[in-house]
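Lab notebook, bench 4. The sequencing result for the construct came back, and we need a structural model before the next group meeting so we can plan mutations. Quick request posted to the team channel:

Model the 3D structure of this chain.
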Amino acid sequence: MYFLLIGLVVLALKFLEFGPAATLSWWIVLLPFALAAAWWTWADASGYTKQQAINKMDKRKQDRLEKQRAVLGLGPKKKK
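Done. Here's the predicted structure in token form:
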């Protein structure tokens, strides 16, 4: 995601011919987009994206269970 944002900023600067980005080669301007595509390809092929989604779902499930236990009074004992 960061590569995509960097690419969009550099592309806008190149298009508007602002600052040092105006003199950059188009290869350098388009490089962050290629890196973003490579990252997404690797993340999908290695299962990284799927694992992150599973972790997020497990965290939400655990939070929901803890909230329900607290409502029912089954949570950890409070020290007096």
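Helices lie at 2-15, 26-46, 48-72.
Will bring this to the meeting.
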